[in-house]
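question for whoever is on the cluster today: can someone run the full assembly for these? four chains, 446 residues total. i dont have access anymore since they changed the login thing
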Amino acid sequence: MSKRYEQHCPVAQALDVVGERWALLIVRNLLLGPLRFTDLLGALPKMGTRMLSDRLKNLSEAGVVASRELPPPASTVAYALTERGFELAPVISALADWGGPLLTPGKRAERRDPDSAALMLWNRAQKAKRPPSGNVRLEIGERSYVFQFRAGEVRAQRGELAAPDSAVAVSTSDAFALLEGSLDVRRALDSERLKLSGQLRAPAFRELFGLPRSSEGGAPHAR
Amino acid sequence: MSKRYEQHCPVAQALDVVGERWALLIVRNLLLGPLRFTDLLGALPKMGTRMLSDRLKNLSEAGVVASRELPPPASTVAYALTERGFELAPVISALADWGGPLLTPGKRAERRDPDSAALMLWNRAQKAKRPPSGNVRLEIGERSYVFQFRAGEVRAQRGELAAPDSAVAVSTSDAFALLEGSLDVRRALDSERLKLSGQLRAPAFRELFGLPRSSEGGAPHAR
DNA sequence: CCGCATCCGTTTCGATACTG
DNA sequence: CAGTATCGAAACGGATGCGG
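^ ran it for u. tokens below:
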């Protein structure tokens, strides 16, 4: 945007770069790994192709994202965050924390994609008790993610992992249900809506991702 | 904005509320205390009155700001952050951290106001070594601020304080110079561009606000 | 003066069609 | 698949007006 705030203030300067509509959502989607133009487009409903190419251009010039040519046979372009771009993670994280209470469980017509669930899990994992170390393969809906815990850091990326220490599988809607507490980990395991394998046990899993213990304590059929 | 992202994601929900142009800058200015309509207008160059009243309306409906009638004789309205609004501080803080490197020392035509300097000092104070406890009266340019340190928390507000433990006075431009490291605390004190009084000594002052030790180490006239 | 509503020229947005 | 071209609709920015 050529409209800058023109203030000698770090907040205004930051917003000059990532304060435009869509910009931070693009960053959010790229936090889990590189994406192609159309992948981004699909993840950002209502956004037009013009918008996306404009934003990607601006973010590239600002050094936040970089486009790389994928090697053949997948000869196409992928967009990835630069190191500077990854440094926006605390901003996204703070926004996610603040926006958490705004998530109303009901709401139809709101897109629910695996990436959002994965990011929420990542955000919680960063704040939860530090795990020892290890890799977790997380399957949410059709997508697969790798969470790497080591030295008090958590990294999350799209992708497969040959030999993870543990594996988790859950549907997209159940992932959100677990996050919001309307589905209990124990109950999800019993009904096989959540599958755990490897070293990870239920209590450790819940702590690892800071999941609430249960929905309403003693009201199983709270409608 | 009636244009919502319509995604079931806390980041998107947060941006639906505070992602519009100007919104976060309004919050930033209110972090230091309530302001009147025209005060905000003056702090936000290029912003029109229409924009401001729209944004204030949206932010009020979202529960981020609240307008309160000031008691007579100053019968006018002031806008203040709600508790929910203050919870955006980590977002502003993360943006300030990320935007810090974008601040180029030179740049004319960039507004430099005391509030920005005070906010930057607040941001650094939060990350610096925890001070014991006490109140500091900080005068930047024409404005006065009160920093309250206690129990590992730092609060910063516009306003006077009758009997602070320490007092600091500096011009607006020198405040930025101290922050960016082009002006050394020691040198500023010697030349009386920075005035300290009360219990606060130079080294403690520098640590309290995480100020850099000096500009370029051994190049006093680096041009 | 303060808080806001109205008007207007310009920019930006969102959707679609189209090209390499 | 990766964009560019185009167009109507909306939003922005600035100026002005008007009731307190």
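summary bc i know u wont read the tokens: The longest helix of chain B spans residues 114-127. Residues 3, 36-38, 49-50, 52-53, 76-77 of chain B lie near DNA strand C (CB under 10 Å from a C1').
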